[in-house]
Amino acid sequence: MFAQNNQAVVWRGFEHSWTYNHRINRLGNYITQNNNKLTSCHASASGLGADSTTFTSHYSFVKSPNVAFQAGKKDIKLYGKEKHLITKIIEIAVPAKEGLKNKDEYITLLNGFDLRAVDRADKIQLLRLSVENAEYAPAVNEIRFYLRVTLVVNCQSFECSRFNQKTTYNLSIHYLIAAGDTEYLTERPKMLTKDYPWGKKDEHHHTSDKRYIIGKKDGEYQNALLGIKSMALTLDDAHWTVEYHNNITPLDYNKETGRLDFAADLFFKEWQQGMKTMSAKPQHSKFSSKKKGWCVLDVGISLLQFKEAEIVHKKHGGSMFWEGFNAPSSDGKAMYEQPLVFPFKTTNATDK
Questions:
Q1: What are 300-341's pLDDT values in tens digits?
Q2: What is the CA radius of gyration of the chain?
């Protein structure tokens, strides 16, 4: 029998592109799930200069009779000095919904994020988000786990204040808990890392990397998907951003060997050719510039294997335009919302 909590949308990351490089006024990509109302959201706002955004959101629908899901969100304020490490460890304790009590496995995934400048935009040097697996506390009927956040930003550009060295960002982290007994649900984690330098002459291009992960074998688990447990962007210095990708795409799953092949798209780009004159707003982008540097991108993923499940992998793209001039990141024009619908056949209480 399928209950309301037996289906969910699992976030697999995003692709984000501007037409020239910017400070981060707002950047986010996430899934919201309130009862059976589903929305895929992308957030984008540059600083002083106006620009258009193109993006792609990646996610998987899952439905299982033996696994229950619980989605949530935590809002965090990040306040500190530019160039200083801002770190938060947040304990989450939420009442367990029906179907999530006294299970063997409590797998916790990131279901996206939304980073919003409060006063003014800064350039990113370090952004790290991670979630730890949850535990069930039967005495209080709560699911408990930790979120960890690290941020370093700075702004040395002409549009930045030389006297105000404080920075404030609001961060929303969306999460998803999958709960089930081991015979129906199992997890295998893996860490992926990519690093490279770039200069000021040759534009850096990329392709996704084909990888694989191996879980439980012998055909015991019929279906599988990938989720994200952590993500990080580390730069040698604070940089403008023109493009940022952090996503994974399942390609093939073999239930006998427990192997899932997938594509990993990890990419950061500081500048691109033609951005001064070929952008969405040339009168603003003519002031853009290049800076050499290096980056390290890493993502912690998990292979979730199900004894019985329906799984559908999807993605969609979109575009947005932002007027710039340091407009507040809370402006509705910074948001793109795409309603989602579960692709599974409707079932009722008599269906087994």
A1: 999 999 999 999 999 999 999 998 887 889 999 999 999 999
A2: 21
Alpha carbon distance 230, 25 (integer Å):
22
Which residues partner with 107 through β-bridges? 178
- Does this model's pTM top 0.90? My answer is yes
The percent helix, strand, coil of the chain (3-state, each to 5) is 5, 65, 35
Nearest-angstrom CA–CA distance, 4 and 28: 27
φ, ψ (nearest 5 deg) of residue 321: -135, 135
Contacts 24+ apart (CB under 8 A), 316-320: 316/40, 316/56, 316/57, 317/54, 317/55, 317/56, 317/57, 318/42, 318/54, 318/55, 318/56, 318/57, 319/52, 319/53, 319/54, 319/55, 320/42, 320/44, 320/52, 320/53, 320/55
CA-closest candidate to residue 67, choices 110, 105, 36, 109:
105
- Cα 226 to Cα 305: distance, rounded to the nearest angstrom: 9
**282: Cβ contacts below 8 Å, ≥ 6 apart:** 276
**Which tokens is 322 given?**
């932002």
Tokens matching residue 157: 């550009």
Residue 197: phi and psi, rounded to 5, are -95, 170
Helix or strand holding residue 131 (H, E): strand 123-131
